Amino acid sequence: MLRKSDFYYDLPEDLIAQTPIEPRNHSRLLVADREKGFVCHSQFYRLFDFLKKGDLLVMNNSKVIPARLYCDIKGRETGGEILLLKQKNADCWEAIVKPGKKLKKGAEFSIGEYLKGEVLEVLEDGNRILKFYFEGNFYEILDKIGNMPLPPYITEKLKDKNRYQTVYAKENGSAAAPTAGLHFTNEMIEELKEKGINIAYVTLHVGLGTFRPVKEDIITDHKMHTESFYVPDETAELIKRTKAAGGRVISVGTTSLRTLESAFSETKELIKKEGSTDIFIYPPYKFKVIDGLITNFHLPESTLIMLVSALLGRENTMNCYKIAVEEKYRFFSFGDAMLIL
To answer: Consecutive 10-residue runs of the chain (341 residues): their mean pLDDT?
Structure first.
């Protein structure tokens, strides 16, 4: 029976990356080979060295919205903060608000000259359903007035908000970036294609639940958050062709991995699929679709390090993290990368 403490490691605070590295693909890359059991060190721009012609990289093309908003509250001298989580319909969103005492049901607020709104409902978990009133395109307004919802462990201000966005981000909806993809440049993706590495996309809108700590001692007692996903027809077909030809399906990030494993689990075959998932992957787990993973280094005792352990093995994973700390890799969202094959 696995416990939360089985996934703990000591991380010096100065190894938590506060700013992204430039250029994007010059982060370090720790490579862990599951069959041969060795670990080697490289750079992300040399990812080609570890891939084969006919391999398939599956990327999450969800786009982070500038979901952190600062508002004036009607009838109050001080303002509040809104963090958009999930769009419910054209003008209603589920959100986290601060301070909760001032943003009760019926409270009205405004954000500059662009947005007005009111609190429609207070949910059991304390989140709010907000209704917005605006003219024009909501996402264009967010681009003007919103701030990127950086994780709580990043304390430095982001100079360029596009650096918390993958270069292939397309579908609006995430409250956090699928960070494994932050290492890719457009030029690198084109080079991969030229070398016979195929690229496919899925969509999973990342919620802030990805940062939710595991509170239960026995990990199977933890309840995962729900996220919406989409696997297009062309991606499903490309995966089938890759498998049939003996190529490897390598997930870029834990979100792409959860998407593919969720889609297969529900249908028992990989086809075009749209839905929601609360899949929790931890050891032991038999992977149905993916053969490898590109990922960043995750928080101690998090569901993400548990997922990595399901693929690499818990002891191997914790050993890799020990090595990464000793070698002073950069950790978390703006940190270095790990390739598991």
So the answer is: 96 97 97 90 98 98 95 93 91 94 95 94 94 95 92 89 96 94 98 98 87 89 92 96 97 97 79 90 96 98 97 96 98 98 97
Cβ distance 272 to 80 under 8 Å? no
- Range 4-64+159-340: architecture per CATH: 3-Layer(aba) Sandwich (3.40)
Residue pair 111/70 in contact by the 8 Å Cβ criterion: yes
Q: Where in the chain is the domain with CATH 3.40.1780.10?
A: 4-64+159-340
What's at 304, amino acid-wise?
A: L
Q: Which residues pair with 202 in a beta bridge?
A: 60
Q: What is the 3 state secondary structure string of 145-202?
A: HCECCCCCCCCCCCCCHHHHCCCCCCEEEECCCCHHHHHCCHHHHHHHHHCCCEEEEE
Q: At the topology level of CATH, where does 68-145 sit?
A: Thrombin, subunit H (2.40.10)
Q: What type of residue sits at position 57?
A: L
Q: Record the pTM.
A: 0.92
